[in-house]
Amino acid sequence: MSKLVQQQDLEFLLNTVFSAAQLTRFERYADYDQEAFASVLDTARRIAETHFLPHNAKADANEPQFDGEHVTTIPEVKAAWQHYAESGLLSARHRYDDGGMQLPALISMACNAYFMAANPATAAYPFLTSAAANVIHAFAADAQKQAFLEPMFNGRFAGTMALTEPDVGSSLGDLTTKAIPHEDGTYRLKGQKMYISGGDQDITENIVHLVLARIEGAAVGVKGISMFIVPKFLVDEQGNCSERNDVKLAGLLHKMGYRGTTSTVLSFGEQGACVGYLVGEAGHGLSYMFKMMNEARVGVGLGAAMIGYRGYLESLAYAKDRPQGRSAANRDPASKPVPIIEHADVRRMLLQQKAYVEGSLALCLLAARLVDEHDAGDNAESGILLDLLTPVVKSYPSFYGPRANDLAIQVLGGAGYIREYPVEQCYRDNRLNPIHEGTHGIQGLDLLGRKLWQHEGKGLKLLLERIQVTLNAASKYPELHEAVVLYQNALKPFMATTVELGQSLLSGNAEQTLANASVYLDIMGKYVVGWLWLEMASKALGDHGLEPDFVQGKLQAARYFMRWELPEAELHLQRLQAADDTFLSTKPEWL
Predict the structure, then answer these.
(1) Contact 393, 300 (CB under 8 A)
(2) What percent of the chain has pLDDT over 90?
């Protein structure tokens, strides 16, 4: 059994649930067929298993070091980067004319799933680079593209995004890094950024930082923010690295997890000579960065899902092999101990993990499918639905992935708490994801305060239309009758509460309504993933080529979700309907 992802599950999601083969009807993907998709996925799996997985624990135990001048990582990280770059995956989704593979987002996301399960810390370097290159490709001037894209695509240069400042966290409108216009058309940046993943390392020739800063004299707030390309080394006309730019590593941060990825504090312009190149138009930096941030948010969701998935598979294998105890009905102390998977409470913890991680993976692949429908199919409605769901795609796996890892530790008992078993590291790595790319609370504010009401609420309408299609299909199967009824009955109060919250916002009660935004985000995540479990279960019943145990596993996970997870959401809905002010009315002095 693979330690990264159950192959049958991934193939089922790609081919049966999300119909990857149908993507070839789009002109952009016409050169592909199902066999070609399988070949790309097999390459990704092989590289992940051979070059990423083996040093996952070693990179965790041997963090990057900084001697005051240079950063050093273990050699395996650079070797893994080179294999990844040589595969072409850094530019996988770009067109052939731009040096890419023109690969669908759905297949690219599935490839990334292998790497996130194998070694999320090392995988962070190529994923950040791809995201930064996508921003440059979308918004930078031709000269900037010529200077930086090819070396980023071929792995000579890496990329980062530099947003957070020591005194300014998620409130980006308050950032203080400034950009001073220079007579040659470039800018001189001055300021400090922190928590910059991959901000320095020894695996590439150069690092291309995408930095948010305020041009001297620009308006305060988010409207005055611009984006700049700030390379670690300046690049000459031949594309070679020349002199060192005035970007200095102030120090490395030491994290609970993701220890193999450098987390840095960077100082820009200590000598007054930090050269930056304006991307696009001045004052549009935050909108440009959101392209990278939204892509990164989906990537964070995938990482959380796959770290959770890895822990699930490890605990499942352990439970099958670890003998301990006897059934409650067996009174014979001389009888042979049974594997712990025979105990109902262990099966409870495994089934919960299965529901969380397989549901989370389906959620991330749904987002990728929507990207393909929007980009290659020119479907505006898919873009609207993706925009609505992005906070959920980021946050549901980030919340329930660590919960799955917590359950995995519990399955292993004392063994789960020691580093000789990988579930301990999985938990530490995954605990960062609820913070990465906007906390759970920020995503809740984004969803309830903005996303739900954009386009006159069309995103929610589109979501409900897709849910209804699934309910109609699932209703044809007697095995899903209970699950369908439970979901339908739960959906009614969810919609009623959503309408009430919208009316409350329109009435000017923003502070009270948004005080429970993170709770609403969690609720919506359960309804979306519950829908996907109905979709998976009905598709499993309709695919007669699947193994019976695989089908029954999907059915049982769907039943669990409707019986146990949705009722929790309904309890929270009651609190939202009552406009519960427990948190809002709590005074700082009481804490």
Answers:
(1) no
(2) 94
